[in-house]
Write a structure and sequence with these properties.
- The complex is a heterodimer of chains A (292) and B (423).
- Chain A is mostly helical.
- Chain A is 67% helix and 2% strand.
- Chain B folds into two domains: 202 residues, P-loop containing nucleotide triphosphate hydrolases (Rossmann fold, 3-Layer(aba) Sandwich), CATH 3.40.50.300; 138 residues, abc- transporter (atp binding component) like domain (Coagulation Factor XIII, Chain A, domain 1).
- In chain B, 24% of the residues lie in helices and 35% in strands.
- In chain B, the strands form four sheets. Chain B has a six-stranded mixed beta sheet with strand order 5-6-7-3-8-9, sandwiched between helices.
- In chain B, helix 5 crosses helix 6.
- The two termini of chain B are 47 Å apart.
- The chains are: A mainly alpha (292), B alpha+beta (423).
């Protein structure tokens, strides 16, 4: 018989088998293995993402139709509004509808992530209160749904390009990188909103407003080249601007130029939001179960 | 041995902060906050930035759901956690399963924990039974491969083979619960934390679940089991943890814990209520008093009832006495065994007094169910477990030990009237 080892804050009791994980729960203890923990829960992430998808597309007609009708009608309206009535210039020779659609793709990705993620914790409140897992999984899983929606929209864009006989060139190879950028750009604000929404439920009223506002502030219906040169850098502080410009650069075959200073500014803002979002989310996630 | 301790809690406490400007809603809305005064807003802003939960209200009160909790649980131990509502049981389980973090103290846990605080967590009504098995399994911490391996077993246990591809919203509630529990029952963590989940389902299925849990416990797994079903706690658990007011009140062998719990819960030997609706006669007051000056003089329970009759009715009076785990222990009646003793009530109030010889009852806690009825025909008024009474008496002269209910051998000591060595 060995006497009880004195409790120690640093080392696990020496007698514990080496392979066994020792978990210490303490007030305010920073999670040391946060990211590794997240990785071990990847299956749950996959399952939750799959659940969201399955539920969304259970009534298949409506699910797919929604991803098709919404961007299509928006494209038509913007083309008429900005292209025909306001006679805004397109990017180079790109047909106006194609230019609009190439900007709408990342915009809808952004707005879907923002709105789905920010409600995800509240609508999964029963899970949060009953089971432990890194809470980041829930808003992250809603990204997958948004990506699938975006893929449907992308197919629509390809059809549109075929219709206009306007095909993308080698630059389309960079599209995945910009999709990633779009996801990161959405994730930062989304995490902030998600965490805030848990505490102050009226944030859910703010989000549709922000999105509606953002649709017109961001260069979705028009090209960001239409913005006067002296304002362009300031304009690029909107993180979505960099993302949309990137998408157009990829998809419009060199008809849209990347405005580098602005793009870098957008990247900086994206990074700042991402950092703030993750930091805030991590700081508050431990109390989610008490608040929901 | 220190090596065998899988859960160690030291000075564990969980504090909730409650605001005192009684809110109607469960959550705090920024709109409400903005409407309040500037000082409160400044405080909120500070809290938002610091990531602290914000509390609405002018006065803030701290409420400790758990305080100074110390205990150790060894590998393979099956611990029954008992206590009244609000004693902190659920909070303790939530802290141990990492759902909420402690406010002070620390817990050390060795091994993989799975917690089952609810049956069917995360079940989605639109998804089929098959899909929900995977979903629920993943939520409870099973890997996809593990679920696939146990899939057939789970389905067989739940007896839902025919409905696997039906959305669970079309399931009967019994099927739903069976499927949900079947998934949970196939968890194989090193430490299993189970909250009051057996309260659902029919008796047959409950028995099956208890069997399955007993099997789990038998495989050297550590189990923490919260239940109000004292019978289940007694049969499954070896040790007990009694919580009261957020503190540990007893930790030890399960029967001692249950006895302590029963005693702590039996503070109220009097009962008072409004007449039952629609009853011809109703018990509106009851009181039980135990008398035992010395064991040699025997012991008696005096029972006093006030009955309010609405119409003229004649009835038998029954007292059904059960022990803290709910097992029927003793029975006393007026008018059941001899019909001529039935009590004729006229409209109005009547007070009945009766005494029972209680010398056969072992020390311990008892609860009384009182009933007015027409024997084996109809119940007139029934008051379930309305009185609790603790029987305690000094040991008789010359006794080495006193037979006690907490021995777990029932509540009646048979007096030995003849004993001789015949060979």
């Amino acid at each position: 018989m060995t006497p009880d080892a004195p409790p120690s804050d640093v080392a696990p009791p020496a007698a514990a088998p080496a392979a066994e994980r020792v978990l210490v729960l303490e007030a305010g203890r920073a999670e040391r293995h946060y990211w590794r923990d997240l990785w071990t829960y990847r299956e749950l992430f996959a399952i939750l993402a799959w659940r969201d998808l399955a539920v969304r597309y259970k009534q298949t007609v409506i699910g797919v139709a929604w991803a098709v009708v919404r961007p299509f009608l928006t494209m038509v309206i913007f083309t008429v509004l900005f292209g025909r009535l306001a006679k805004m210039p397109s990017d180079g020779d790109a047909p106006y509808p194609v230019m609009v659609f190439a900007g709408m793709l990342p915009w809808f990705l952004f707005s879907t992530i923002l709105s789905e993620a920010s409600n995800s914790l509240v609508s999964n409140a029963n899970l949060i209160g009953k089971v432990y897992f890194p809470r980041l999984i829930v808003p992250a899983a809603s990204i997958v749904v948004a990506l699938v929606d975006a893929a449907v929209t992308f197919v629509l864009l390809l059809l549109l390009m075929l219709w206009f006989g306007f095909l993308p060139d080698w630059r389309i190879a960079f599209l995945p990188a910009f999709v990633l950028l779009a996801v990161l750009a959405s994730l930062g604000p989304a995490l902030l909103m998600t965490a805030m929404n848990v505490k102050y439920r009226d944030f859910r009223y703010i989000i549709p407003f922000v999105l509606q506002f953002g649709l017109y502030v961001s260069p979705v219906g028009f090209s960001s080249a239409a913005v006067p040169e002296q304002w362009r850098l300031l304009y690029s502080l909107n993180p979505v601007v960099g993302v949309i410009d990137g998408f157009r650069w990829c998809l419009l075959g060199g008809q849209a130029q990347l405005y580098m200073p602005g793009f870098l500014a957008s990247l900086g803002v994206v990074a700042a939001f991402l950092w703030a979002g993750i930091a805030y989310f991590r700081r508050t996630e431990r109390s989610f179960a008490d608040l929901l | 041995m220190a090596a065998d301790v899988v859960i160690r809690a030291e000075g564990l406490g969980k504090k909730y902060v409650i605001g005192h400007q009684a809110e109607r809603e469960r959550y705090v809305a920024l709109r409400d906050v903005l409407a309040r005064n500037a000082r409160a807003l400044a405080r909120s802003a500070r809290d938002i930035l610091a990531g602290r939960p914000m509390v609405a209200g002018d006065e803030i009160e701290e409420f400790w759901a758990l305080r100074d909790i110390d205990f150790e649980i060894r590998r393979g131990e099956v611990v029954g956690v008992v206590g009244r509502n609000g004693a902190g049981k659920s909070t303790l389980l939530k802290v141990l399963s990492r759902i909420t973090e402690p406010s002070e103290g620390r817990v050390e846990i060795h091994g993989r924990v799975a917690s089952l605080l609810e049956v069917g967590t995360g079940f989605h009504p639109e998804l089929t039974g098959r899909e929900n098995i995977f979903l629920n399994g993943a939520i409870l911490g099973m890997g996809a491969a593990e679920i696939r391996r146990k899939f057939d077993e789970i389905v067989a246990f739940a007896e839902v083979e025919k409905f696997l591809d039906t959305p669970v919203k079309r399931y009967s509630s019994g099927m739903y619960v069976r499927l949900a529990f079947a998934v949970a029952a196939h968890l194989e963590p090193e430490i299993l934390i189970v909250d009051e989940v057996l309260a659902v389902g029919d008796a047959e299925f409950q028995k099956k679940c208890l069997g399955k849990m007993g099997e789990v416990a038998g495989h050297g797994r550590t189990v923490l089991f919260v239940s109000h079903n004292m019978g289940a706690v007694r049969s499954l658990c070896q040790t007990g943890l009694l919580l009261g007011g957020g503190r540990v009140q007893h930790r030890g062998a399960v029967r001692d814990t249950l006895a302590r719990y029963a005693e702590a819960a039996s503070l109220d030997p009097a009962f008072r209520a409004e007449p039952s609706e629609g009853a011809a006669a109703s018990i509106v007051e009851a009181e039980a008093v135990y008398f035992a000056d010395s064991p040699e003089d025997g012991a008696r329970i005096d029972l006093r009832l006030k009955v309010r009759a609405r119409t003229a009715v004649s009835a038998a009076v029954e007292a059904k006495i059960s022990d803290p785990v709910g097992a029927p222990t003793a029975y006393g009646s007026v008018g059941v065994i001899h019909s001529r003793d039935m009590v004729a009530f006229t409209p109005g109030e009547h007070v009945l007094e009766m005494s029972f010889d209680a010398s056969a009852l072992a020390p311990g806690a008892y609860s009384f169910t009182l009933e007015l009825n027409k024997p084996f025909e109809a119940s007139i008024d029934r008051r379930e477990n309305c009185l609790r009474l603790v029987i305690d008496r000094p040991p008789a002269h010359g006794q080495t030990r006193q037979f006690h209910q907490s021995w777990g051998c029932g509540s009646v000591l048979l007096p030995v009237i003849r004993f001789e060595r015949t060979a």
